[in-house]
Write a structure and sequence with these properties.
The chain contains seven helices and eleven strands. The chain is α/β, with parallel strands linked by helices and 278 residues long. The protein starts with 7 loop residues before the first strand and ends with a helix.
Amino acid sequence: METELTPARWRVLRTPPAPGAWNMAVDEAILEAVGQKHSLPTLRLYAWSPPCLSLGYAQPLSDVDFEALQCNGWQLVRRPTGGRAILHTDELTYSVIAPLDEPRVAGGVLESYCRLAQALLDALNRLGLPARADSRYDLPPGTQPGGPVCFETPSNYEITVQGKKLIGSAQARRKDGVLQHGSLPLWGDLTRITRALRFKDEEARQKAAARLLERAATAQHLGVLLNWEDCADAFEAAFAATLAIHFQPGDLTSQEQERAAQLVAEKYAHPAWTNHIL
């Protein structure tokens, strides 16, 4: 049985839409500051401008169609977390950043995923989306694991509605603490991502797009039209209620802003990071 959580004070940040390299750098800068006890554990709610294709930490760069990215005006960034590609546009993105000794992220990846998933479920229920988080998924018949698109296949404790994946999340556990971030697509064409990725031929691209529509959805596809602010309100209220958090609204500290700018220049906007092969 889960031990009842003692109420805790966290910071909540709502940061304006920003380029992909900045968004990833801010999450890492907060992680460092939280680990050094310079900042409170943080729930950050944000968006992306311009649209950005993000790759998982170990995803091969060969998955990317660079010509298509340029033609569409989309950016590219590599996340510090695992998983596969996501096209960030028309969405709310959340990040949870806390030290390793924070009970809400304690244990292994799956244990903390399960705990945080309860808050995500509550947020979606508040928004009129009857979501669930299953502990185990099997690949559908004929599916090949390891495809380039993140939202094509649900994994442990990711959030589905009517059998379709709605929130995809990924986590990194470091000496500084835990970073989990994820995306809630609000509206738009989910298959746009297939135009930014390489496939062996056009038939394979079309099949990937069809699979994506079968297995994932936006809130609008599920009949709920949401705006970003209402979603942010629901996420904040759900994390507070489900995880016994008292939120303190805040801004990035000067230290976090300076470190984020450094991380943009030296890491997230630098080819040595984006192009690395593991």
